[in-house]
Hints:
Elements: H1 15-23, H2 29-42, H3 44-54, H4 60-83, H5 90-108, H6 111-116, H7 122-143, H8 151-181, H9 185-214
Amino acid sequence: MLVLPDLAYAHAIAEGDKGYIQEITGVHLVSFAYLGAKHMATGYDHILFLLGVIFFLYRMNQIALYVTLFAIGHSTTMLLGVYFNVGINSYLIDAIIGLSVVYKALDNMGAYQRWFGFQPNTKVATLVFGLFHGFGLSTKIIEYEISPDGLVPNLLAFNVGVEIGQLLALGAILIAMGYWRRTDSFLKHAYTANVVMMSAGFILVGMQLTGYFVS
């Protein structure tokens, strides 16, 4: 927590943006869309989960399906969570988000089939974890107490920005994965890459739980 303090707040919004959110009133569609895109494009927990989701997906229709399921879950809980003021302890929700990265990495490694003899429904899992990712962001937004004046259109604009940021992050991931998949090292190191991803998820979980018990 002391060495890497920023990593403990995967869903935190930069201090300058936080002050801006708290001070403005009324409808600011462009500003909130920008903040949403910035958050998603720089949210390493989201990016890790997206990487895990598309790691072994090759067809664009499959990628579109899974990303859409994630977006539906993410958007639903973010919008409803803020609108109805439903917050979850930020450390606990971020720990669950870290577990989503662990879950997907283990799924990519074929762990559930080896351990339990069956494959969990990956579509349902993506949707469910999308719901948790959305609660992670809604919890932070609630803490910043944005003005109720213009709340709904601003939230919708923020969500549009989140989806734009997600597409930008996804595009970068697909370009990098496309190059890697054309090399012999992909199949050789795919398992190791998911072990690293799983380890990163466990680190996120550990840091968030430490923050929860220390706070």
